[in-house]
Every structure is written in C-alpha cells, then in structure tokens.
Amino acid sequence: MEALSEALTYVYSLCVGGAPIQITIGVEADADRQNYYSFSIMLKAGHIERAVCKPVTLRLSIDPRQLEFSVFVFPPRSSLPVGCLHHLRVWLKSAGVDHRIFGDNDLWIGRDPDFRSIADASFAILRNATHDMLIYQAIVGRAHVSFIVRWRLVEFGIYALSLDYEAGGVGRILFDEYYLKLDCEPQTVSFMIYSIPAVSMPRGASHRLRFWLRTPHASLSSASSASSQMTESYIYQRLWKTDDFKIGAYLDFVALGSKLTMGVRDPYSPQSERDQPHRNQSIRRLSRLPIPNSDTSAEPIHDR
Fold first, then answer.
1. Is the residue at 300 inside a domain?
2. What is the domain extent for residue 196?
3. What ranges does the record give for the region Disordered, renumbered to this chain (predicted)?
4. pTM to 2 decimals?
5. What number is the average pLDDT over the span 237-247?
C-alpha cells in the first residue's frame, strides 16, 4: 500500500436543528510512526467552521483513501431551547467492524431557536461594536456586567475568539484563543449571551452563563441580501458555557447563618514591600508555589 503523502478529507452533509451543516473528517499520516494516522473532525455551519472533538490516532492496515464512516446525530429527550441539543457520533467501518472514533454529547446548534422559552434568563444587549470587538451589557445578580468579545486575526480566514467580563472596575478572562474559520467578515457574526440564576447562598451569587454565536442562514451574496433581510433567519451555535459564574451586587453574606465568621481588615493594610520588605517578599514567593491536591478520601467541601 502506497504511503499517504498528504492529508485527506471526508465530507458529510446533514441537517441539525433545522440548520444545514457539514462534518469534515481529516486523515493525516503520522510523520514518526508507520501506518499510524491522525483523525480530526470539523463542523461547518452558518459560514463558521470549528473543531468539535479532540484528534485521535489509529493504526491502519487498510488504505486510508478508501475509508467509510457512519456520521449521524440524534437528540436527547429534551433541551432548552427546544431542538438545539444533539449527540454527535462518528464511526469508522472496516471489514464489517464498526469503531467509534468521535462522540460529542454537547453539540448545541439550531436555526432560529426560541431563547425566550428559557425561564428566568437574563440576556445581554449589544452596546458598542468595532471591527475587532463587541461589548454587551447585562445585569447578572443585580450587578451591571460588561461582556467583551474580541476577534484576533491569526491568518487569512482564521480568527481567535476571546471573551472576558468587567463589573465594578474588576475584570476576568472567561475564555480565549477559540479558533474559528470564517467564510465571512467578523462583522457579520453576532452573539447571544445570557445568564440563568442558580440556587445559591447568599441569593443571587451563582449563575449559569451561556455564550452562543449567530450567523445568517442565507447566502451572503448580494443577490440574496434582500431576501435574507426579509426572512431574518439565523443559525445559532453554542460555543461555551459555565455553570459556576460567581458574581452579584449587594450580596447578603449574613444570610449564611449565625455560624458565619467574618474577617476584620488590618487597619494598617494594604502595605507595600517598603513597609515590610521581608514579609511581603515571602508572601509573594509562597503565592507562586503550587498548592497540593486535597485528600480525596475526606468529606467533600461544598462551595456555596
């Protein structure tokens, strides 16, 4: 069998949540090991292409140019928005034997989903946009929060996406370097950001945060621009989530109960290294050392 000198791609088309998508399976020979091949999978929907699973390596004694795959999705019992959550499976078929090589139980994609059906959701509103940044404002746990989405051009057609937030003069990166291949300008892409309150003590301190990407369903050609504006149909993909977004305004920590012990600030703090050079240098060194893992055999500590 002739060695594979260049990467191969197998493309499958299907409809998911009313949105047409393409699944591309890449096959590339391992440069260091004979008969070993790296398999990757990409999903394209609404002018956006992205990786959906980690690559896997397989040893093949068959021709990589003659592979056959079973690619399919199926819905779980329920989801909100309805019809957006799917399970993705990719199986490799060889000599009557099927090998599952890719699986994703958290594929969220759909055409014009009904986000308003999500009870208690608080949606961010776009307030400002430039060629490489969008600022959304929201109220999360009574706190006014700005979500900043940034684009960074990596190479032609490929961008790195990042998301951070800022509230009350304090900010944090939520994710960065999410690589996407665009068949459109970044200005064509918009986002759906919303939070859902979770049970917490004090009340309003914990939230589930969701980040979706939105692109037009219709072609971006000038001939179809008028019809696309009339239909206003979009394809949504959920790129990121967290169920542990901790933020809130005017939180009532006293509600934690009578056993709460609140710390008292030292009247002389903060202090600079000039005030206590030896102590502050030791603290700085300690803060950079790794923290050992906790004993997993002990009782779990529940973070409220």
1. no
2. 115-246
3. 265-304
4. 0.85
5. 97
